[in-house]
Amino acid sequence: MNLISNLVGVLLTLGASSAFADSWILENPNPELLKEVESIHGKATEKIVLGDNVFYTISGNNLPEAQFASAEVGEYLQRITDASSAQPNYNIGLVKSVDATSGKKVRAPEGWHVNNQNYKKLHTVATGKDIIVAVLDTGVDYKHNSLKNHIWSNKNEVPGNGIDDDKNGYIDDVVGWDFMDNDNDPSDVQGHGTHCAGIIGADAMKGGLSMGIAPAAKIMPIRLLANKTLLADAALAIKYAVDNGAKVLSNSWRIYSQWTQYDPSPKNLAIFKAAIEYAQSKDVIFVAATGNERKDINKLSNKIWPVGYPGLTHLFGVASSDPDGKASSFTNYGDKFTHVAAPGRDIYSTIPGNRWGFKSGTSMATPLVAGAIALALSTGMSAHAVLEDLVKTAVPNRQWDHYAKSGGVINIYQLLK
Ligand SMILES: [Ca+2]
Ligand SMILES: [Ca+2]
Q1: Which residue from 57, 107, 284, 300 has the least number of CB within 10 angstroms?
Q2: Which residues contact 103 (CB under 8 A, 6 or more apart)?
Q3: 192 flagged as catalytic
Q4: pTM score, two decimals?
């Protein structure tokens, strides 16, 4: 090994996650043994109950790291607590953003995706009435003029009295929750989540076509993505959304296999599986972006989670299409984990501060599909039928043959017919 390769190693470590996770997630540890471990290594910081599985996060800081290689820390924790798994509580992040929109084919007020999916006609059939769609993202500017009438409201919570009236574990959570600052204000500073929310439910913009796909659905703002978001935060957020009535979860965040220095074995992904299975057990649909690296995510080396987790019936992967129906240049693809393609380039939607603007990415295609699912659910279709029919009714396009299960771009009107 020379100096340069050592240095590259260090940079990779800094850029991704450290070899020694600061925090670990234990699955179903023996309570007595956990207490003993807590007395040595510090108290478990979070307890996350997902159906029959109970996860605890525990700090890695007081562990005798010097004695262990990274994977061995997990093995050590698992062994001394008799847990069924111990996984690093890794950082998650938004799917990689797409810097520039094409800027050529579309102009500000056009809202090509609205024409592409013929929203006017859709809304004569369905509006998404009473279906709650959670946006697990950077938060939502829920006071935005075009969004404020489309935000979920927790009817069982009295605002501002400092009491958890509905006893769901969250005080004064009237419009959602901020899992980063741990408070009841999930507003959005960054802008990504507000854009996603608008794609689902914004009022029609003045002087243009753009609008939300499911105008009568309710958006549940969840602030999850910030500078340092951990996997356990995502699990807590998923549980919150499911327990509080969301029927569809829109997820434009991920972990990549190439980020991490651990083996992406099932045990290291246990909490993903448990969280999405928990959603599944309540018939809640988990829509996930495939990411924006132009990669074939069928390949293990390009794997991305949660979208790449196999065998989950309610996990639905979304890639991005252009106005001509072809794959967007940035989109990831791969028909093992990509269910459908949907408009994702040059999408005009809401931005914090009563503004509108363009964004591109599978991040945009994902809430569009989440909103389409809300439309279909509001007509009484079952979750199972919606997901199956979304794939079946897509418009065939040879380019999507091995890219998406659907072999083409969604056709929502056909889905609702
Ligand atoms: Ca509450
Ligand atoms: Ca209250």
Answers
A1: 300
A2: 346
A3: yes
A4: 0.92
